[in-house]
Write a structure and sequence with these properties.
Elements (H helix, E strand, L loop, with lengths): L8 H15 L6 H13 L3 E4 L6 H10 L6 E5 L6 H5 L4 H5 L16 E5 L6 H13 L1 E4 L2 E4 L4 E6 L9 H5 L3 E4 L5 H8 L16 H11 L3 E2 L1 H16 L6 H17 L4 E2 L7 H5 L6 H11 L8 H20 L1 E3 L9 E2 L5 E2 L3 E5 L9 E2 L5 E2 L3 E2 L2 E2 L1 E2 L1 E5 L4 E3 L4 H38 L8 H30 L18 H7 L2
Parallel strand pairs: 1-6, 1-7, 2-3, 3-6, 8-9
Antiparallel strand pairs: 4-5, 10-20, 11-12, 13-19, 14-15, 14-18, 16-17
Helix pairs in contact: 2-11, 9-11, 10-13, 14-16, 15-16
Amino acid sequence: MENTLVITPDRKSKLKKLLLEMQQGLLERETQTKLILLAALAGEHVLLLGPPGTAKSELAKRLKSIFVEANYFERLLTRFSVPEELFGPLSIRALEEDRYNRLTSGYLPEASVAFIDEIFKANSAILNSLLTLLNERQFDNGNRRHEVPLISVIAASNELPEGEELTALYDRFMLRSFVEPVSDNAFRSLLCLESDECDPDLATRLRVDELKEVQALSAKVTLSSSVLVLCEAFRKYLVQENIYVSDRRWRKIIKLLQVSAFTNNQTEVSVYDAWLLPHCLWETPDQLEGLIKLYKTNIAIDGDFQPTRLTKVLLAWEAKLELDRNNKQHVHNEKGDPLFVGKKGEPILSKSSKKQKLDDEGKPLFDDGYGEETYSERSYGSSNKPLLVDTPNQPFLATICYSAAHIESRVEQVQKLQREISTFHDLLCDQRSSAARLLSDHIWADASILPELSESLQTAIQQTERLLERTDKLINGFNELPRESEDLESFDGPQEPEVIEGELCD
């Protein structure tokens, strides 16, 4: 029977308990425990970077302890490690029968959870089999390829990979986290810390078939427009920072976001689930801070409301209002003759008038009586005549009076835009008031982002309020346009290009 998206409150409660169990007795490792458990639920792997003695192997052991009957494998790699250390020794009996088989019992091919320390010390003899096992969950033993029960690999390293041959291995780890020693604030607590093992009740632990169900049902979770816009913002940032992320990696990131949303009893991925993005996208630890800042800055983005687009629309409407206000038409007399502006501003029929000629600097010119131009008003005891030339008269223009239908159409379209902005303004206010509750109830999201979220929401709210003020001014401006008398034929003004009209009426 086809899987349907059924929310199970018990699953969320169980995961909360397991997270608390994993975090018990650890200091400042909340983010790492969330990443590790979420990666296991999604069937992905985690890379922990950092100095020795920062509980990296302990985190892997705790992941193993939350599963029912999970096999655990742990190994430290060196430059001299051989495949037998990871995949098991060759079978002597098989060799005697001319077969090349490994005895995999107790080794990585039969592990559910594995911890591989100094993962980037893997040499070429190990690398190909390791890549296939991590990605396809398959292992070539002799001439047969076997499915492996691997849930997740937690890898650790003190340094980033060097060399192109390790790039593919590095890319297999969807979630990455830099693990630092505890801070000064937690140092005293570290000294007084009592040993506390992670040992959940059997009824609370996860079964492998639960993981398959979570992954199948999570695929039905939809993406909100806000998350799509947020991903686009991240991709643009990555290009600017010259951080390469493959299309395959983006697809797996979406899978992680869907698992985060589904296990939090959501049917749609929200921006709160997108807290994972920075932990999936960095190549070097120093890039993480910028990615987290980008997330916090853009967390209030809504895909259906884009201020940049609406600001352009408002600017176009404001230009339309200015055009309507300044729109004038050439006045004609009763016979249909065009009128022009006379010397005193009165309407006249003459298209041109005699006016004194001026030079390029605006100085008046005179006729000296000999056909020459001069600046002097007098010469040889007599007055010079002003030098006159025919000058076109300005058209006599009158402000256009618009029909009621024209004005009402303008107002109606701006009001439509205003309602869209107002609706989003209300949604932002609701989100601001409910943010603390939503974050506290979310399994995975970090509640510490609340201050930045509140600030981002407040900025978005103020932006929408300014847009609403501008729409009010637009509506008032169109309503104040001069109206024609009801007995006159309506005049709707010049027609704007259809493409602009279409954009404005969006």
